[in-house]
């Protein structure tokens, strides 16, 4: 009350002697000043509806108050204001488009926003349309929207990253188009889609083979990831040649992992052992059971073909918003089936190993980053406090670093020699791997890698080397990664492994106590960074 009273007094003093319209224009001008903006917003929220015609006048006539009038739309509830705001999505000025989007986001729920704006996406200049697409895809995802936008080359980069969440003939046709015509990150999106769509067509394999020698190391890395899923004996020669030519530390590790996966599959799915009883239209549950009993190369190929021809409908899953038990069971089976097809075996008998002294004689001096770009300066997620009301982790503190957002299937690497203590797939984490390490000084620490996809490589108890590939990220907003935007949650805990400290967040009180033994992962890596990465 007092704030509004003093604001009114301020405005009355400032506007004396002016006409009503001129008085309001002064309020608009105060939106552009940091010192007076808050007072102007309070006034607009209370009185803006009264001046909607003046706002519309400035917008229609593009007066000197045009930008401030567009900005004011966000604080004035009016159908006329909403109508003009939708038209501003087509404005030639990027900042005007973004202000219009901001207004619509603040005024409309996702369903109405989609109805009002989705049909306009194709006409919005791309620099403004990207923001709208990202928001709608989070709140109200639509395969039709993704495929429609991919008809426009301008959207290949932003919409292509979500193509790996689409399955079916139309989605596959779009992905193959990107693989043939795309460049750089677009090729990565296309290969991701090939993986998610179970596409092992020889023509596709031939195209992916070419990218094992692409000038971009990240493209080469992703091409090798494809063969980790679907490569066979016929791909070994090209992978071996690529490995001999490869100079990038991380890409070499992914190629080695692909070669090893193919060799594992040759043992799990022998060529000569034939199975019987395959039927078209089997459910995931039936396919998993069938493959477990009929583990031949021929049967594996039939299961993959079945999955490719009959797409699985995956729910858009957001952690903390719940999921039907029937969907949960279906998606659990999908994770297990993907592992069986890749030759990695079930997670059902894994979990953790504690109390076994396997680190004698293992000691490290230096560390490597878990992803090639992990040491980016802007990455400072550790210790971030989540404000009240901001989701399931509100009022808590983040005890790891998050990186590689929206980058599905990004390969993840062990930061040092050690022993794998934990491997599992959990509803809240997706794929989770924890490795125990020891410095040569005798100090123990653990590295934690969360939100991985189904194909985690190591098993509890395995010895691992620095730079060994441990898996890749799960896809955006899918069960496989715990229901988040694709990203790596990376943590460092300065202790030996026990399961009681496995957390992604702490209460502010516990974090401030400094007794939790979590440390800033980025600072820890930089302090002990291998000279190879200086």
Fold and architecture overview:
With 534 residues, this protein is of the alpha+beta class. The chain has 22 helices and twelve strands. The protein has helices spanning 2-15, 20-30, 37-47, 52-61, 66-72, 79-87, 94-107, 110-117, 126-139, 143-149, 156-160, 169-181, 185-196, 202-210, 217-230, 236-245, 249-268, 284-293, 297-309, 325-342, 508-513, 521-527; strands at residues 351-352, 396-398, 401-403, 411-413, 418-426, 430-438, 444-452, 463-464, 469-472, 488-493, 505-507, 518-519. The strands form three sheets. Strands 1, 3, 5, 6, 7, 8, 10 and 12 form an eight-stranded antiparallel sheet that branches. Strands 2-11 form a two-stranded antiparallel sheet. β6 and β7 form a beta hairpin. α7 (94-107) runs parallel beside α9.
């Amino acid at each position: 009350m007092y704030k509004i009273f003093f604001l009114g007094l301020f405005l009355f003093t400032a506007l004396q002697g002016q006409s009503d319209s001129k008085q309001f224009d002064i309020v608009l001008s105060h939106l552009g000043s940091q010192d007076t903006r808050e007072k102007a917003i309070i006034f607009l929220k209370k009185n803006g509806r009264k001046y909607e015609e003046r706002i519309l006048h400035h917008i229609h006539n593009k007066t000197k108050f045009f930008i401030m009038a567009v900005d004011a739309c966000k604080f004035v509830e009016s159908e006329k204001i909403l109508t003009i705001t939708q038209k501003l999505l087509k404005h030639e000025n990027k900042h005007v488009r973004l202000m219009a989007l901001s207004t619509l986001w603040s005024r409309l729920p996702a369903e109405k926003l989609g109805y009002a704006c989705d049909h306009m996406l194709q006409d919005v200049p791309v620099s403004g349309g990207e923001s709208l697409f990202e928001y709608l895809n989070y709140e109200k995802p639509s395969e039709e929207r993704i495929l429609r936008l991919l008809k426009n080359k301008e959207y290949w980069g932003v919409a292509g990253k979500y193509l790996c969440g689409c399955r079916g003939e139309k989605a596959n046709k779009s992905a193959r188009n990107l693989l043939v015509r795309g460049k750089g990150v677009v090729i990565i999106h296309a290969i991701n889609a090939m993986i998610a769509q179970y596409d092992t067509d020889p023509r596709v394999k031939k195209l992916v083979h070419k990218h094992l020698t692409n000038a971009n190391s990240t493209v080469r890395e992703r091409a090798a990831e494809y063969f980790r899923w679907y490569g066979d004996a016929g791909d070994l020669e090209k992978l071996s040649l690529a490995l001999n030519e490869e100079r990038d530390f991380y890409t070499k590790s992914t190629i080695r992992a692909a070669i090893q996966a193919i060799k594992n599959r040759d043992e799990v799915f022998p060529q000569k052992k034939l199975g019987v009883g395959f039927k078209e239209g089997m459910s995931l549950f039936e396919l998993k059971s069938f493959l477990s009993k009929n583990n031949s190369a021929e049967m594996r190929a039939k299961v993959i073909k079945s999955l490719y021809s009959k797409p699985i409908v995956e729910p858009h899953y957001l952690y903390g918003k719940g999921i039907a038990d029937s969907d949960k069971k279906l998606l659990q089976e999908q994770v297990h089936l993907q592992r069986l097809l890749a030759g990695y075996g079930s997670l059902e008998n894994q979990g953790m190993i504690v109390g076994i002294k396997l680190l004698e004689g293992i000691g490290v001096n230096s560390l490597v980053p878990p992803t090639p770009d992990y040491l980016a300066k802007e990455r400072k997620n550790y210790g971030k406090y989540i404000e009240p009301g901001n989701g399931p982790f509100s009022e808590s503190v983040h005890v790891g670093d998050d990186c590689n957002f929206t980058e599905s299937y990004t390969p993840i690497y062990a930061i040092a020699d050690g022993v794998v203590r934990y491997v599992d797939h959990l509803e809240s984490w997706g794929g989770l791997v924890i490795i125990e390490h020891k410095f040569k000084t005798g100090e123990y620490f653990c590295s934690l890698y969360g939100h991985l996809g189904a194909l985690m490589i190591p098993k509890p108890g395995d010895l691992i080397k620095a730079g060994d590939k441990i898996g890749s990220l799960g896809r955006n907003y899918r069960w496989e990664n715990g229901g988040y935007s694709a990203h790596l949650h990376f943590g460092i805990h300065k202790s030996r492994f026990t399961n009681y400290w496995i957390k992604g967040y702490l209460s502010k009180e516990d974090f401030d106590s400094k007794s939790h033994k979590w440390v800033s992962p980025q600072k820890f890596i930089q302090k002990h960074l291998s000279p190879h990465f200086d």
